[in-house]
Amino acid sequence: MTATVTVPVPAMPRRRKDPSEIRQPESGEKNVLLAAPRGYCAGVDRAVIAVERALEHYGAPIYVRKEIVHNRHVVDRLSERGAIFVDDTHEVPEGARVVFSAHGVSPAVHEEAAARSLDTIDATCPLVTKVHREAVRFEKQGYSIILVGHEGHEEVEGTMGEAPDSITLIQNPEEARAVELPETDKLVWLSQTTLSVDETMETVDILTQRFPHLEAPPSDDICYATQNRQVAVKKIAPGADLVLVVGSANSSNSVRLVEVALEHGAKDAHRIDFAREVDEEWFHGVSTIGVTSGASVPDLLVQDLLRLLADYGYGDVEEVRTADEDVIFSLPRELRKDLKAAGLETSNKKNGADRNHELR
């Protein structure tokens, strides 16, 4: 009996509508409000450059546990250069070199890597490391810890792994209203670094009403870049008929930007990975388009989007800046040590230039 083989038929590329097919706004005016800050933060920049420098210095392959950052374009480009992305350390050959992603890992992952004699480069964002250290310190001091975050996110898994017997995860206001906690005078909250500031504080306010002795972390856990990008979106959203956020679906801060835009006055908002994913139907009757990108997005993807928008008449671009960022994090200690021993540059810059947008 002859087996039947089904050959998949490649999808036909979608025909883009001609600009003449798009209903024009009543005002006849078209413009773009470009949020700033947007795109790469210092932690993402550091992690991506760490993989690039590791490939240059040690040669391919370099294994990376999970996605180094949550962006399809970045992961694809690094894969082309010789990075191999794996879901867990047991997939890395014994004795090989592995980079831990910017989202951080639990102590158990470090132990697994040591058991397999892996050479590790820890590219955890220093702001995530701060939360890890807070969890360890509060557990040692006898606190019960509430972690505000999203179940299954790599950062949350890493933080909970630092104090698994002391942390209760709360994902949203509804869970805050329902959670039952052990009787204790020592109760503190921490948070995932990439959350919506507004929703986090709503959750914390509910918890504080229920548990008046709940203490706050000594410093803000939500990272400066996440907050800055949300503030910028809040600024442009009220005047935007449509907000487009460049970022991947598994990027928590990118998804939050869409929600923040809608909550603060945008008539419509969508997240896209690439300009080619834009649906021109979104442009019908639209006068002002807001544009931003998540903290793991190289700016070249935003520039691609701006070129597409210009093709549809949105060539008038006004940058709306709400903050300036000049934070730079050093490369991971393990990588700096080996680069220094080889007499090589140990900064996270190349020839003094910003490497933020090299991943083409």
From TrEMBL:
<protein>
    <recommendedName>
        <fullName>4-hydroxy-3-methylbut-2-enyl diphosphate reductase</fullName>
        <ecNumber>1.17.7.4</ecNumber>
    </recommendedName>
</protein>
<feature type="region of interest" description="Disordered">
    <location>
        <begin position="1"/>
        <end position="29"/>
    </location>
</feature>
<keyword id="KW-0411">Iron-sulfur</keyword>
<dbReference type="GO" id="GO:0019288">
    <property type="term" value="P:isopentenyl diphosphate biosynthetic process, methylerythritol 4-phosphate pathway"/>
</dbReference>
<feature type="binding site">
    <location>
        <position position="70"/>
    </location>
    <ligand>
        <name>(2E)-4-hydroxy-3-methylbut-2-enyl diphosphate</name>
    </ligand>
</feature>
<comment type="similarity">
    <text>Belongs to the IspH family.</text>
</comment>
<feature type="binding site">
    <location>
        <position position="223"/>
    </location>
    <ligand>
        <name>[4Fe-4S] cluster</name>
    </ligand>
</feature>
<feature type="binding site">
    <location>
        <position position="125"/>
    </location>
    <ligand>
        <name>[4Fe-4S] cluster</name>
    </ligand>
</feature>
<feature type="binding site">
    <location>
        <position position="253"/>
    </location>
    <ligand>
        <name>dimethylallyl diphosphate</name>
    </ligand>
</feature>
<feature type="binding site">
    <location>
        <position position="253"/>
    </location>
    <ligand>
        <name>isopentenyl diphosphate</name>
    </ligand>
</feature>
<keyword id="KW-0408">Iron</keyword>
<feature type="binding site">
    <location>
        <position position="153"/>
    </location>
    <ligand>
        <name>dimethylallyl diphosphate</name>
    </ligand>
</feature>
<feature type="binding site">
    <location>
        <position position="296"/>
    </location>
    <ligand>
        <name>isopentenyl diphosphate</name>
    </ligand>
</feature>
<keyword id="KW-0414">Isoprene biosynthesis</keyword>
<dbReference type="GO" id="GO:0050992">
    <property type="term" value="P:dimethylallyl diphosphate biosynthetic process"/>
</dbReference>
<feature type="binding site">
    <location>
        <position position="103"/>
    </location>
    <ligand>
        <name>(2E)-4-hydroxy-3-methylbut-2-enyl diphosphate</name>
    </ligand>
</feature>
<feature type="binding site">
    <location>
        <position position="153"/>
    </location>
    <ligand>
        <name>(2E)-4-hydroxy-3-methylbut-2-enyl diphosphate</name>
    </ligand>
</feature>
<feature type="binding site">
    <location>
        <position position="296"/>
    </location>
    <ligand>
        <name>(2E)-4-hydroxy-3-methylbut-2-enyl diphosphate</name>
    </ligand>
</feature>
<feature type="binding site">
    <location>
        <position position="103"/>
    </location>
    <ligand>
        <name>isopentenyl diphosphate</name>
    </ligand>
</feature>
<feature type="binding site">
    <location>
        <position position="70"/>
    </location>
    <ligand>
        <name>isopentenyl diphosphate</name>
    </ligand>
</feature>
<feature type="binding site">
    <location>
        <position position="253"/>
    </location>
    <ligand>
        <name>(2E)-4-hydroxy-3-methylbut-2-enyl diphosphate</name>
    </ligand>
</feature>
<feature type="binding site">
    <location>
        <position position="70"/>
    </location>
    <ligand>
        <name>dimethylallyl diphosphate</name>
    </ligand>
</feature>
<dbReference type="GO" id="GO:0016114">
    <property type="term" value="P:terpenoid biosynthetic process"/>
</dbReference>
<comment type="pathway">
    <text>Isoprenoid biosynthesis; dimethylallyl diphosphate biosynthesis; dimethylallyl diphosphate from (2E)-4-hydroxy-3-methylbutenyl diphosphate: step 1/1.</text>
</comment>
<feature type="compositionally biased region" description="Basic and acidic residues">
    <location>
        <begin position="18"/>
        <end position="29"/>
    </location>
</feature>
<dbReference type="GO" id="GO:0051745">
    <property type="term" value="F:4-hydroxy-3-methylbut-2-enyl diphosphate reductase activity"/>
</dbReference>
<feature type="binding site">
    <location>
        <position position="296"/>
    </location>
    <ligand>
        <name>dimethylallyl diphosphate</name>
    </ligand>
</feature>
<dbReference type="Pfam" id="PF02401">
    <property type="entry name" value="LYTB"/>
</dbReference>
<feature type="binding site">
    <location>
        <position position="252"/>
    </location>
    <ligand>
        <name>isopentenyl diphosphate</name>
    </ligand>
</feature>
<dbReference type="InterPro" id="IPR003451">
    <property type="entry name" value="LytB/IspH"/>
</dbReference>
<feature type="binding site">
    <location>
        <position position="251"/>
    </location>
    <ligand>
        <name>isopentenyl diphosphate</name>
    </ligand>
</feature>
<feature type="binding site">
    <location>
        <position position="252"/>
    </location>
    <ligand>
        <name>dimethylallyl diphosphate</name>
    </ligand>
</feature>
<feature type="binding site">
    <location>
        <position position="41"/>
    </location>
    <ligand>
        <name>[4Fe-4S] cluster</name>
    </ligand>
</feature>
<dbReference type="GO" id="GO:0046872">
    <property type="term" value="F:metal ion binding"/>
</dbReference>
<comment type="pathway">
    <text>Isoprenoid biosynthesis; isopentenyl diphosphate biosynthesis via DXP pathway; isopentenyl diphosphate from 1-deoxy-D-xylulose 5-phosphate: step 6/6.</text>
</comment>
<keyword id="KW-0004">4Fe-4S</keyword>
<feature type="binding site">
    <location>
        <position position="153"/>
    </location>
    <ligand>
        <name>isopentenyl diphosphate</name>
    </ligand>
</feature>
<feature type="active site" description="Proton donor">
    <location>
        <position position="155"/>
    </location>
</feature>
<feature type="binding site">
    <location>
        <position position="252"/>
    </location>
    <ligand>
        <name>(2E)-4-hydroxy-3-methylbut-2-enyl diphosphate</name>
    </ligand>
</feature>
<comment type="function">
    <text>Catalyzes the conversion of 1-hydroxy-2-methyl-2-(E)-butenyl 4-diphosphate (HMBPP) into a mixture of isopentenyl diphosphate (IPP) and dimethylallyl diphosphate (DMAPP). Acts in the terminal step of the DOXP/MEP pathway for isoprenoid precursor biosynthesis.</text>
</comment>
<feature type="binding site">
    <location>
        <position position="193"/>
    </location>
    <ligand>
        <name>(2E)-4-hydroxy-3-methylbut-2-enyl diphosphate</name>
    </ligand>
</feature>
<keyword id="KW-0560">Oxidoreductase</keyword>
